[in-house]
Design a protein that fits this description.
This protein is of the alpha/beta class. It has helices at residues 21-38, 57-69, 87-91, 94-97, 131-134, 141-159, 264-272, 289-295, 323-330, 334-351; strands spanning 2-6, 14-15, 18-19, 42-46, 76-80, 102-105, 113-117, 121-126, 164-170, 203-207, 213-214, 219-221, 237-242, 245-250, 257-262, 278-283, 301-306. Helix 7 (264-272) links the parallel strand 15 (257-262) and strand 16 (278-283). Helix 1 packs parallel to helix 2 (57-69). The chain starts with a strand and ends in a 5-residue tail after the last helix. 34% of the residues are buried. This is Nuclease SbcCD subunit D.
């Protein structure tokens, strides 16, 4: 059993409107090289193929080019839908992609599980589970998830006796450490799902959480291969499984996400040493607009500049201004000013003195 596991590609992702297409091209080229070296029986992409429900034509092109690049590098590519994915977008080319040995499980109510057989194991490919799917199993969401995974396990054992059983999931499992930029996700009304639903499976390829980690020795998040925020500073991985051995493979950084703090001089010097990075700058001093322009003239992408708050303002006096002052400032006609005083007197006679 040889599996290359990744997830949360988020193809089409941008940072403050800055396209990341070149990074994705470089990652897919690197991934193709790993697949060529490891020669896995299958590649699993455990959900969130795209960043948005309606990806751009360029994002869809990159998706197809990626799948095409894996032809003859692996026996099958298994794609499951995630919470970011439109099942219609994934499902539309499903039949055509079979000719590229790509199995798509889109996540619609009639397409949320598929068995994919190999020589010594079977993948029970299960997509992100929407509530309509789970209601087919039980009105109680927690029970429904358990029933679904256990029924599919039983069915796989009956159909494919003696083979190892692998499954997929796209949700938060209890005990997982969040990666920072994940969108809040619920399966029905559950924010976290117990790992007990996977009892009996030999390997579980998880998606949704961007930080790579082991929940148990065989229940694993590969994490997202590219950083999706400035807080995702940890090493990115994909996972290679060979029988009972699990290997986390480091993904190169194709573009740096860097938060730089300090004085204008310190920040300026650091920026000059960097190229083609996404930068978040925090200055500890107030600077004028000309200096800010100097920071932006480099070869990097400055996403955000934060200046310090002014905590204290000294020798600041506010002149007391009365309504009469305002009227006199706006109007210079004697009649209007006299009318104002007449109205003011009537109000005071009725309700008491009007304070300035």
């Amino acid at each position: 059993m040889k599996i290359l596991h990744t997830s949360d590609l988020h193809i089409g992702h941008s940072v403050s409107g800055i396209d990341r297409g070149e990074e994705y091209e470089r990652f897919f080229e690197w991934f193709e090289g790993v697949a060529n070296e490891k020669k896995p029986d299958c590649v699993i992409v455990a959900g969130d193929v795209f960043d948005v429900y309606f990806p751009s034509n360029e994002a869809i092109r990159q998706y197809y080019d990626f799948l095409l690049s894996l032809k003859n590098k692996t026996k099958k590519v298994i794609i499951i839908g995630g919470n970011h994915d439109s099942f219609k977008t994934l499902k539309a080319p499903k039949e055509i992609l079979k000719y590229l040995d790509v199995v798509v499980v889109s996540g619609s109510e009639d397409d949320f599980c598929e068995f994919v057989e190999f020589d010594d194991f079977v993948v029970v490919a299960i997509s992100y589970l929407r509530e309509g799917i789970l209601k087919q199993y039980d009105d109680d969401i927690e029970k429904a998830i358990f029933k679904l995974y256990q029924e599919k396990l039983k069915e796989a054992k009956e159909k494919f006796p003696g083979k190892k059983l692998v499954t997929t999931a796209h949700f938060s499992v209890s005990g997982a450490s969040l990666g920072d930029s994940e969108r809040d996700i619920y399966v029905g009304n559950l924010e976290f799902v117990s790992k007990d639903v996977f009892e009996g499976y030999d390997y579980v390829a998880l998606g949704h959480i961007h930080k790579p980690q082991k929940i148990t020795e065989n229940i694993i998040y590969s994490g997202s291969p590219l950083a999706l925020s400035f807080k995702e500073t940890y090493q990115k991985n994909i996972v290679f499984i060979e029988d009972d051995n699990v290997e986390f493979i480091n993904v190169p950084k194709f573009r740096e996400f860097a938060s730089i703090k300090g004085s204008f001089k310190e920040v300026y010097e650091k920026i000059s040493e960097m190229k083609d990075a996404f930068l978040e700058i925090v200055l500890d001093e107030i600077v004028d607009s000309e200096k800010l322009k100097l920071l932006k003239n480099g070869e990097n992408h400055i996403v955000k500049i934060t200046l310090p708050y002014v905590k204290e303002i000294k020798n600041f006096e506010v002149k007391k201004v009365t309504p009469e002052d305002i009227i006199k400032e706006i109007f210079d006609e004697k009649e209007i000013i006299e009318a104002f005083y007449e109205i003011k007197k009537e109000v005071e006679d009725e309700f008491g003195k009007v304070e300035d």
